Amino acid sequence: MALVQVSSNKCFGGYQKVYEHESSELKCKMRFAIYLPPKAESAKCPVLYWLSGLTCTEQNFITKAGSQQAASEHGIIIVAPDTSPRGCNIEGEDESWDFGTGAGFYVNATQDPWKTNYRMYSYITEELPWLLSSNFSVDPERMSLSGHSMGGHGALVCAFKNPGKYKAVSAFAPICNPSQCAWGQKAFSGYLGPDKTTWEAYDATLLAASYSGPPLDILIDQGRDDQFLSASQLLPDNLIAACSTKNIPVVFRLQQGYDHSYFFVFSFINDHIKHHAKYLNA
Question: How far is CA 150 from the centre of its chain?
Answer without folding.
Answer: 8
